[in-house]
Amino acid sequence: MSQPNATLSGPPAQGRPKMLNHLAYVTHDVEGTVDFYTQVMGMPMVSTVIGSRVPSTGDDFPYFHVFFRLDDGSTLAFFEAPGLPRANPKGHPAYDIFDHLAFEADKPEDIHAWAAWLLQNGVEITGPTDHGIILSIYFRDPVNDIRLEITCPLVEDWNAREDAAARDLRDWVEVKNSAAETGQDVSEALLKFIAARDAEQHDRAVEGPDDSLPRASR
Ligand SMILES: [Fe+2]
Fold first, then answer.
1. Is residue 2 part of a domain?
2. Centroid of ligand 1 to alpha carbon of 100 (angstroms)
3. CA 66 – CA 48 distance, rounded (Å)
4. Would residue 36 count as lying in a domain?
5. 56 C-alpha to ligand 1 centroid (Å)
6. What is the total count of domains within the chain?
7. Phi and psi angles of residue 147, each rounded to the nearest 5 degrees, phi first
8. Confidence band (pLDDT; 50, 70, 90) for 123?
9. Starting at the edge strand that comes first in sequence, how are the strands of the sheet with 100-104 ordered?
10. d(CA 138, ligand 1 centre) in Å
11. Ligand 1 centroid vs 181 CA: distance in angstroms?
12. Residue 28 above 90 pLDDT?
């Protein structure tokens, strides 16, 4: 593990990270997690991402990513992937890929400034990766091996998509449960669902701009 270059220590020109954007953990039970955070903790489910390939690492992995909003706009996030063991933090590669802490920066240029700053300090980075709703770089806390991210929202409503999030959750759970009930491979069923969903979104994009899906300002 490389160590930061001590000669470049001190506050970076772009300042400190301004706030927590999201802290993300792996969960083996997304429905139970949604119930607890929305009903017990009172945090609304405000955004979701469903994917079959992790954009920042290229890993093939059907996953459901969900965000719960705090009062200041910061969020707590979880990932569910099929076949996760219960509460076994290092027993499945998903925990290494998905567990991370993300700081928010003001603008896309700051992400590039951070990337340069980290590289100058001997910290390896992945990205910048454009996720459509946010632009991110990834790296590891070289002391504690915690996966870190610095991210900049590219669309204003990235953490205010309650209706779409509720739809995504319903669809994900439906596909997962019906595959399990009918004895199908859950990962395969989810990959098929994600491919159909991606094709539908592609068709919508080709047909023209949709006001309900604001495009990233790049
Ligand atoms: Fe993230």
1. no
2. 7
3. 4
4. yes
5. 9
6. 1
7. -75, 125
8. confident
9. 45-53, 60-69, 75-80, 19-26, 100-104, 147-153, 134-140, 126-130
10. 8
11. 32
12. no
Between the CA of 150 and the centroid of ligand 1 the distance, in Å, is 8
Distances (CA, A) of 180 to 184, 186, 195: 6, 6, 19
| CA 141 to ligand 1 centroid distance, Å | 15
Question: What range does the domain containing 164 cover?
Answer: 14-209
77 C-alpha to center of ligand 1: Å?
8
Average pLDDT of the segment spanning 103-110: 92
Cα 135 to Cα 130: distance, rounded to the nearest angstrom: 5
Question: Distance, CA 104 to ligand 1 centroid (Å)?
Answer: 10
Question: 24 with 100: CB under 8 angstroms?
Answer: yes
CA dist 218 → 22, 104, 123 (Å): 21, 17, 26
CA 36 vs CA 23, 54, 127: distances in Å: 16, 26, 33
Q: Are 27 and 45 contacting, i.e. CB atoms less than 8 angstroms apart?
A: no
**Residue 5 pLDDT more than 60?**
no
CATH of the domain at 123: 3.10.180.10
Average confidence (pLDDT) over 167-178: 96
149 CA distance to ligand 1 middle (Å): 6
| Tens digits of residue pLDDT in 43-84 | 899 999 999 888 888 888 899 999 999 888 999 999 998 887
DSSP label at residue 96: H
Does 103 reside within a domain? yes
> For position 2, what pLDDT does the model report?
47
Helix (H) or strand (E) holding 158: none
Confidence band of 90 (pLDDT split at 50, 70, 90): low
